[in-house]
Amino acid sequence: MRRASFLWMAITAISLVAVICGGYWLFKDHGKETLPPAPSPSLPKMANLPRNEPEIKPPPKPTYAPDAPVLEQARQALREGITPADALAMAATLPEKPERADAAFLLLEYAAESGNAEAAMALGEYYDPSLDLPSGSIRKNPTHAFEWYQIALEGGHTESRNRLTDLRRWVVASAENGAADAQALLETWP
Fold first, then answer.
1. Domains in the chain and their CATH numbers?
2. What is d(CA 50, CA 30) in angstroms, rounded to the nearest whole number?
């Protein structure tokens, strides 16, 4: 009697599992309209493969300690409320050390965001891939360079017009070589 009861429970459990699995299989894709998969934008078709884009080198890894004295001096000056004009002057007088470019960038960014056209010009140079100037850990970016040069020009810094001309030449050449960021920048260039 006990064996028959156990056998009956086992058959019931197996049947219940089969019904649940069958129901899941039956209803998981049924009742839904099946659409073809959307094309993946990250996988170009063979005919649309991008040309070899000129590579903008990433910035080098910082070679200084996180608590580098010059960088800490710049941060301290900003915490203490340095004026934009003094920030610009301090950026110009920082000693030549590995962290100098990053410390100067912090000070220049503060001054430029406060409306200083000379600082905006300097920030454009940090980002400008057409220039071979040290930029610390700041990655070259033609769009950011364009934006800062425009701000400098609007602020009355006339030299930024020449930088914009040089940058445009670099962007046109890069766009012709298939660089997507350069093509996008050219489309919005006034």
1. 69-188 (1.25.40)
2. 40
Other Cβ atoms less than 10 A from the Cβ of 104: the count is: 27
Q: Residue 164: pLDDT above 70?
A: yes
The pLDDT of residue 64 is: 57
Question: Which two structure tokens, joined as six digits, stand for 94?
Answer: 């920082």
Looking at residue 48, what DSSP letter applies?
Answer: G
In terms of Cβ atoms closer than 10 Å to its own Cβ (0-12, 13-18, 19+), residue 109 is: buried
Q: Please, what is the end-to-end C-alpha distance for the chain in angstroms?
A: 92
Neighbours of 181 (CB within 10 A): 16
Q: Which residue has the higher pLDDT, 12 or 48?
A: 12
In angstroms, the Cα distances linking 147 to 58, 101, 112, 122 are 20, 20, 12, 12
Cut 0.90: pTM above it: no
Q: With contact defined as beta carbons under 8 Å apart, do 117 and 84 qualify?
A: no
pLDDT over 90 for what percent of the chain?
Answer: 40
Q: Tell me, what's the pLDDT at 190? A: 82
> Residue 15: exposed, middle, or buried by beta-carbon count in 10 A (0-12, 13-18, 19+)?
exposed
